[in-house]
Specification:
Layout lengths: L3 E5 L1 H7 L9 H10 L4 E4 L12 H12 L4 E6 L3 H10 L3 E4 L15 H17 L3 E6 L5 H9 L4 E5 L1 H4 L5 H20 L3 E5 L7 H7 L3 E6 L1 H10 L1 H11 L2
Parallel strand pairs: 1-2, 1-8, 2-3, 3-4, 4-5, 5-6, 6-7, 7-8
Helix pairs in contact: 2-3, 5-6, 10-11
């Protein structure tokens, strides 16, 4: 089965936040994405609310519940107590935990599972008790020991950070090297019973290669490249193009 597409709305929210105005509407763009085949919506509510605002979360939750009950809401973030309370209040189907410092511009590395395993385990169990599927942000060259430590937290999935692969858009040789790392780590994760998600700098052009390297891929979360294409093709057609690229 092709990987499912979750549309990350952070870039659209950041554009909205340039002015004290309600457009572009994050909820309206989410509706268009779901109408055109996206499986879900992803947000990363950072403490400074520089893109997704906390007030967006109940609106997106209501959109899915009222109009697209088969879709999924995925909330990403660093597991502070404030973040965990946001999650509890908005009941996403999936929570993706990322090791970001609040000052980071964007996610750029996976968890140190061997060093943070005990800390993550308690958070993962808390989230699962509340009914969420839990995914952990993971480096694309994660070792078996690292992935075993991820599995030991009780997480359901890992999300491979595909930024290094996305950065090879003009270098086919490097792209092949990055895909080989992902393929190796993906096989280990699959052997351990971890589901596989992926995200960061994915495009219509590089998604097919990723899908070939990770045939176990369940979901991709895409924001920047998808939003950029939406300026050219419109949100509806862009979502359809990305779904086709998923295979």
């Amino acid at each position: 089965m092709p990987a499912k597409l979750s549309v990350n709305l952070n870039a659209a929210a950041m554009l909205r936040n340039r002015r004290d105005l309600p457009w572009p509407s994050v909820t309206a763009l989410g509706r268009i994405a779901l109408e055109n085949g996206a499986h879900g919506l992803t947000v990363h509510p950072r403490p400074d609310q520089r893109h997704i605002r906390f007030s967006d979360l109940p609106e997106l939750r209501a959109l899915i519940d009222d109009e697209f009950p088969g879709a999924e809401f995925n909330i990403e973030g660093y597991p502070t107590e404030d973040f965990l309370e946001l999650v509890r209040a908005n009941q996403p189907e999936q929570v993706t935990l990322v090791p970001d410092d609040p000052a980071q511009a964007t996610s750029d590395h996976g968890w140190d599972f061997e060093g943070k395993g005990n800390e993550l385990r308690s958070v993962v169990q808390r989230l699962k008790k509340d009914g969420a599927r839990v995914s952990l942000f993971c480096d694309p060259d994660a070792s078996r020991a690292s992935l075993e430590a991820a599995k030991a937290t009780g997480a359901d999935r890992v999300e491979f950070y595909t930024g290094p692969y996305g950065g090879t858009h003009d270098d086919p040789a490097r792209a092949a090297e990055e895909l080989a790392k992902l393929e190796t780590a993906g096989k280990i994760a699959d052997e351990l019973g971890l589901g596989i998600n992926a995200g960061h700098d994915l495009t219509v052009d590089n998604l097919p290669g990723l899908a070939r390297a990770l045939p176990q891929l369940l979901e991709v979360s895409i924001g920047h490249g998808l939003t950029a294409d939406a300026l050219e093709y419109g949100m509806a057609e862009t979502v359809r193009r990305f779904i086709r690229a998923c295979g």
